[in-house]
Predict the structure of Putative endonuclease.
Amino acid sequence: MKKPCIYLLTNKNNTVIYIGVTSNLIKRVYEHKSGKHNGFSHRYNCDKLVYFEQFSTMDEAIAREKQLKAGSRKRKENLINLENPDWLDLAEGWVFDF
């Protein structure tokens, strides 16, 4: 899945929402799940992929990331609820082989 993407992660209790942008969603989710980076998502245990969007260009993805980060939590929750109302881990069953 090497396409520019924005993605939303949460923790097991769905209390924190992390928004990121990447050009390789599978690799980036693997990095979050394996704790490769010490940052916000690691500190708050955000490793459950609950939403993502793909774009044609990285510029489009970055613009969307900024738009979402500027919005309220309620807006982010509504976005997730439209596509993934049970807040399931969309990466469940992915095979991470790097």
About this structure: The first strand starts at residue 5 and ends at 10. The CA atoms of residues 75 and 98 lie 34 Å apart. The helical segments are 25-34, 40-43, 58-70, 73-83.
